[in-house]
Amino acid sequence: MQQHEIDDQVFELYDEYCHGYIDRREFMSRASKLSIAGVSALAMAEALIPNYVEAQEIQFTDDGIKANWIDYSSPGGTSGEMRGYLVAPVGEGPFPAVLVMHENRGLNPYVKDVARRFAVAGFLALAPDGLAPIGGYPGNDDDGRSMQRTLDQSELRQDMVNSARFVKSHKLSNGKLGATGFCWGGGTTNFLATEMGDELSAGAPFYGSAAATEKVPQIKAAIQVHYAEHDDRVNAMKAEYETALKAAGVEYEMHTYAGTRHGFHNYSTPRYDQTAAQLAWDRMVAFFNKHLSTVN
Known about the structure:
Rossmann fold, eight-stranded mixed beta sheet, single chain, alpha/beta
């Protein structure tokens, strides 16, 4: 089922579900009660559940990359230890480093694939699994979402800070760090920008919560923000964030993609917008190439 075939009411319910305000049972139950002439709203709801078999643009066996799970210490985090999916281009390096942060459900196959795409583009990419200290991504988003809600959020964010520092200092890194993420990971990208100062060279959050306004003056990285047009919760923070970035003299770009919804880059669901997702990807790669190069 394509995005244009799904009613706005179902998308609104899905937004509640994917952000953890309702569970899958309630999502399906409420969708089944919607009145949409001639079409099953329940079928629309079922179509929105991610299909990760399709979310594989780059296979882990690709000849141009090396993908491995790696463990590293994370002081002050959930358990003191972390695990992530590290993907490097074939070659000796050094490569610009990028941290790729997942949504609110752990490191699912889509985000791992994004890390592989970065490696194909010439970056050393680390995708940490925030659920690693409690068993790791469980293989489905519903359980992953429940698991992530049990974590102390300040400790989980510290795990992301430690992951960023780990990949920045990796032997294959050129010492320049970028960060990106989606939904929860987008908000955490903004958080890292305020917390890491000049340790972070560039951040490219996708439809995530804005940085705390009072902390924006701490940002030293260049920021490139990606918004969906139809995403009221996140977009309500945009004006205040932009005002704060301007006032702090932060180098920034903001892009809103016409006709898109929250999650438009995620190619495992009908929310995916191929044209917008490719444009956002191309902009982000060019942005990182500009700011993470060691050549001035």
